[in-house]
Design brief:
The complex is a heterodimer of chains A (115) and B (109).
Chain A lengths: L3 E4 L2 E4 L4 E8 L5 E7 L6 E7 L2 E5 L6 E7 L2 E7 L7 E11 L2 E7 L3 E5 L1
Parallel strand pairs in A: 2-11
Antiparallel strand pairs in A: 1-3, 3-8, 4-5, 4-9, 5-6, 7-8, 9-10, 9-11
Chain B lengths: L3 E4 L2 E5 L4 E7 L5 E7 L5 E7 L2 E5 L2 E6 L4 E6 L8 E8 L6 E3 L3 E6 L1
Parallel strand pairs in B: 2-11
Antiparallel strand pairs in B: 1-3, 3-8, 4-5, 4-9, 6-7, 7-8, 9-10, 9-11
Classes of the chains: A mainly beta (115), B mainly beta (109).
């Protein structure tokens, strides 16, 4: 299995809803990432997990809450989002060699719309 | 000035043409990445390189560390190559990618 999967593909939610995005990989990668991508812009890094521990939080608002239950799974919990949070949310994973990170493999993304 | 600059921003080519996309960076890096993104889609990693040249099918990537410059070449371009091509660099440990703005490529048949 050489892919990163993300569910759901599309999500529409209201500003008072709570929802979760899911990302899974079975390549044995020990680093996993969340990115946010607005239209016609490059991705912006949100979070990095290394060996199931949060290693980078790019000052993301607390309405986004990441979770890494095990080395294959990464969740992003969403609560009280704003319409400007509407974007494509991409997950990625990479192998690690010691403390160095290798090539990233990206999932297809979840298209989120906040009403 | 952005840390990663790509040129051109937009490129239209005729099927069969040889295409070059350039990337310059201003920071120290451990590796440079070329990524491809089709409209509405996820991102595919094409190359990760820290020196020299890599080739995969019709795609060739080169990097000149001294000049802090990389190029992505597509030989015998095809309409299915139409996509956004993104250059990104990773720092000392490689855990953070700094992205260029992307090059929108359209190949006409």
């Amino acid at each position: 299995d050489t892919e990163v999967t993300q569910t759901p593909k599309h999500l529409v939610m209201g500003m008072t809803n709570k929802k979760s995005l899911k990302c899974e990989q079975h390549m044995g990668h020990r680093a996993m990432y969340w990115y946010k991508q607005k239209a016609k812009k490059p991705p912006e890094l949100m979070f990095v997990y290394s060996y199931e521990k949060l290693s980078i939080n790019e000052s993301v608002p607390s309405r986004f809450s990441p979770e890494c239950p095990n080395s294959s799974l990464l969740n992003l919990h969403l609560h009280a989002l704003q319409p400007e949070d509407s974007a494509l949310y991409l997950c990625a994973s990479s192998q690690m060699t010691g403390i160095s990170y290798n090539e990233q493999f990206f999932g297809p993304g979840t298209r989120l719309t906040v009403l | 000035k952005n840390e990663v600059e790509q040129s051109p921003q937009n490129l239209t080519a005729q099927e069969g043409e040889f295409i070059t996309i350039n990337c310059s960076y201003s920071v120290g890096i451990s590796a440079l990445h070329w990524l491809q993104q089709h409209p509405g889609g996820g991102i595919v990693s094409l190359f990760m390189l820290s020196s020299g040249k890599k080739k995969h099918g019709r795609l060739i990537a080169t990097i000149n560390i001294q000049e802090k410059h990389s190029s992505l070449h597509i030989t015998a371009s095809h309409p299915r190559d139409s996509a956004v091509y993104i250059c990104a660099v990773s720092g000392e440990y490689g855990n953070k990618l700094v992205f260029g703005a992307g090059t929108i490529l359209r190949v006409k048949s």
